[in-house]
Amino acid sequence: MSRVDPPAIDCLETWPSAYVYPRQLADLLGLKAHTVRAWCRSGRIAGAKHRSPDEHGDWLIPKAAALLLQQRLGFNTKHVA
């Protein structure tokens, strides 16, 4: 079975889901997905949790925490078309 990447995010404000995946946030912020996962593990991203209770799945990052991180890193949060 092949791995399917989650859809790309171009604007967090209009993203319909309450959560984002590390790869989506990393792509949006120009970071590596393993960096975002490390921040989840260390608690740097508040509210991040594993998809599965056995902690083997990928992380789910609350949209509010992703927006806060985006602002703290100095990214413009308004989508520019």
Describe the structure.
With 81 residues, this protein is of the alpha+beta class. It has a single domain, classed as Multidrug-efflux Transporter Regulator, Chain: A, Domain 2. It is 35% helix and 10% strand. The chain is built from three helices and three strands. It has helices at residues 22-29, 33-42, 63-72, and strands spanning 19-20, 49-50, 59-62. It has a three-stranded antiparallel beta sheet with strand order 1-3-2. β2 and β3 form a beta hairpin. α1 crosses α2 (33-42). The termini are far apart. Mean pLDDT is 83; it is low at 77-81.
Could you name the key traits of this structure?
81 residues, alpha+beta, Multidrug-efflux Transporter Regulator, Chain: A, Domain 2, three-stranded antiparallel sheet, 3 helices, 3 strands, 35% helix, globular, disordered C terminus
